[in-house]
Amino acid sequence: MSEYLKETPWDKRNFNINTYELTASTEDALKETVDKDGHFTLKVNPLDNPEMLMKYGFYYMDTLIEPVCKKEDLHLFVRGGASISTEYDRQELIQVAEEAFIHGRFHRDFNIPSSQADKRYVNWLHDLMDANNVFSLLYEGRTAGFYAFEQDKVLLMGMKKEFRSKGLAKTFVSQGCFEQLKFGHAHLKTSISAANVASLNLFYALGFKLKNTVDVYHKMNHTSQIGV
């Protein structure tokens, strides 16, 4: 296996093609994508000149904002009727995941069918539930969505349509962060698409501060249809 190409089997299972993430953006690394079938992801500093990337067939996909929140800076919001739990109906949360994510970079990638991008989030949530890294979000005793994490990372948050735009997100996410910090973390971090302004504003309101940004580029070399 190349020192520059890291296989990403969690994406391969969704798209039924080989998938890789590059570990460097040097020309030697880019050359290794020329004659290899598959989908490639490359993350670079936004200040880097993209000319070489485009020469080798990479296209801009997204800018990821990476905010961080220290334990002592978290703003906890409370609302009557809102709570979180480690108990949930697994299939009910999967149904939320099937239609909750539209800002992901794979949803924006014109080489990836939306159904396959949806599948990626569903499988990811399955993995996180298997690892006991999911809280259910409850409002007045009803399941409203989920909050998923891994170690000190806030990964996914999804809500049913009927509970959106009701001012519940700050309460749910801050409570999820509060419980996650109980595992002994000094801080939490997350990664948000620059296109997802609502999520950015939400995390800033909770006390998260901008730490880093990365530009994400994709490339596709394929001889067969994705997902087939």
Automatic annotation (TrEMBL):
<keyword id="KW-0808">Transferase</keyword>
<dbReference type="GO" id="GO:0016740">
    <property type="term" value="F:transferase activity"/>
</dbReference>
<protein>
    <submittedName>
        <fullName>GNAT family N-acetyltransferase</fullName>
    </submittedName>
</protein>
<dbReference type="InterPro" id="IPR016181">
    <property type="entry name" value="Acyl_CoA_acyltransferase"/>
</dbReference>
